[in-house]
Amino acid sequence: MKPITSVTGRAVAIRRTNIDTDQIIAARHCLRTTRTGFAEHLFAAWRAEPGFPLSDPAHAGATILLAGANFGSGSSREHAVWALQDHGFAVVVASRFGDIFADNAVRSGLVPAVLAEDEVSRLMDTVEADPATPVTVDLVTLTVRTPGTESPIRMDADTRQRFLDGRDGIDVTLQHEAAIRAYELAHAPMTRAS
Amino acid sequence: MATLLDKIWDAHLVHRGAGGTDLLYVDFHLLHEGSSPQAFEGLRLAGRRVRRPDLTLATEDHVVPTRGRLDPSGVAATMVEALRRNCAEFGVPLHRSGTDGQGIVHVIGPELGISQPGRTILCGDSHTSTHGAFGALAFGIGTSQVEHVLATQTIAIAKPRSMAVTLHGVLPPGVSAKDVALAIIGRIGTGGAQGHVIEYRGPAVEAMSMESRLTLCNMSIESGAKAGMIAPDAVTLDYVRGRPYAPAGKAWDDAVARWASLRSDDDAEFDRSVDIDVTDLSPFVTWGTNPSQVVELSGVVPDPAGMTDPADRRAAERALTYLDLTPGTPMREIPIDVVFLGSCTNGRIEDLRAAAELLDGHRIAPGVRMLVVPGSAAVRRAAEAEGLDEVFRKAGAQWRTAGCSLCVAMNDDSLAAGERCASTSNRNFEGRQGRGGRTHLVSPSTAAATALTGRLTAPSTLGARR
Ligand code: SF4
Fold first, then answer.
1. Residue B41: phi, psi to the nearest 5?
2. Which atom of ligand 1 is nearest to the CA of B34?
3. R_g of chain B computed on alpha carbons
4. Which of B113, B144, B224 lies nearest to residue A78, judging by beta carbons?
5. Per-residue model confidence as pLDDT tens digits over A91-144
6. Residue B397 and residue B368: Cα distance in Å, rounded?
7. A6-186 maps to which CATH number?
8. Whose CA is closest to B443, among B201, B255, B211, B115?
9. Which of A27, A43, A161, B456 is the most exposed place for a label (fewest CB within 10 A)?
10. ipTM of the assembly?
């Protein structure tokens, strides 16, 4: 994973709450054994609706997605993260994320930035009024900025460090190999008895 | 002063992280074809092996057909073939489609005795919370974490907060654990338990069978919870004893002695508490496109105009458009095209019995298509031994082999656009059961009563309508 210190780009807003991972990518489009090739199925059903922001040329090339509360609830499918990345998103900003989605995002290098709900909606107003507004999500200062505004984002210390270092999670864990082995020696495994 | 969560957490600590992320040992890791191919590919690329194939087990459930043949075709076949290749290469036991031990991952874990008190159990599937019914800490993970667990048999995670959901009173007849689960989600919302592990407790939980407890814990994720759990008791022990992975002989006695301490201490404090009296509950059904959009079956489609929160109002308007429903319509007047009885929520033998009891000797309404999909090959065998398959067939329902089927529509089964389904599964999201398909979540008894009348029907009102 590449280290990420900040992302600057255009943003696009989807003003819906509880956007579950089935909406981000439907299960039938997850029938692949790779981590790529999901972009065309991102929000497939919604993109067919007139006026869906992602289909608006004014927002083409946006790298930051702004969404309503509880983004990424539902199924654990990491394909949702891969599809967002495949499409070009580097950050999702919401007041609340589905637990598993947020964890998947961190592990795949997509930034889940938690911002207070009223700030999210203000940011949505801004980019809807002017899609060219540059938005910066800064993991060093833990802020989201537009020209003239700055708001704090929430992220726990370990997650932030993981982005800043860009280190592989398995490598980090394997530094504790001795402790894992000690645990295994001290505890009987759960094996098949009959 | 410790909660059940604290006790299981502390017992599995491999390393306490300074930044809030702990490293926990994983007692058992369940796999299925849907979320694992990229994880195995990651191992291969990094030259890593599966650390503990003996603590890992795979099954085929999400994409397999449940009618006519055992193996999928087309793109779904690639998924199953990848799982078979990966399990062979990395030495992971696999319960293939068509074998005795195959089934939905959250149905076979309990059946095999893998789901045990005090264990940490992970799977690349959000409904892993099911296994918490045994007093285990069980939760779903994504594919990157699956790779991490395969490589290290641990998980790096910040400790969730604790939440007590206490169920008082006695459940009325015809009202099931599924109705309770929907009632809880309706009450606390899709984010009501976010960041928390729910411990279900109280007299109504103690009175539940193991299978009902599984249904209750299964739905925890729909209120945003990390996991759901229930302290083990005699019901738990009776269920686990004698199963293939259960300890036997002296090891069983030792385990039982250990498990006795697996309960929250009387003075333990929870970060949140919710109390619900189930005495007056009646069957619930969803009217919207997330599981918190739910009403009693005796109620009506709500009017978004009456909702104070603008986001809720917009979401409700959108949901009603998607579901083609008009505010004020009595729920029991809504006609249904398809009934789905199955899934990891309600695909166990008790669920099939509850439905069969109502269907026995009757025919489902003309024009209704009903799928009965046992949660596992073992459930299917048990049902056939009791003659339930005959009851379903004679009623006009389809009797299938085990799999996820219409819960997820990434196999041969899906709703056509505009079709309306009463479903015993767990998610009523837009398109979940097929693009344009409309889902109403219900209990197995409500599903059966609905199949008989062709409209959403509570089991208790069936006599008058049949
Ligand atoms: S039955 Fe549905 S919810 Fe359960 S594991 Fe299968 S797809 Fe997931």
1. -60, -40
2. 7
3. 21
4. B144
5. 999 999 999 999 999 999 999 999 999 999 999 999 999 999 999 999 999 999
6. 9
7. 3.20.19.10
8. B211
9. A161
10. 0.94
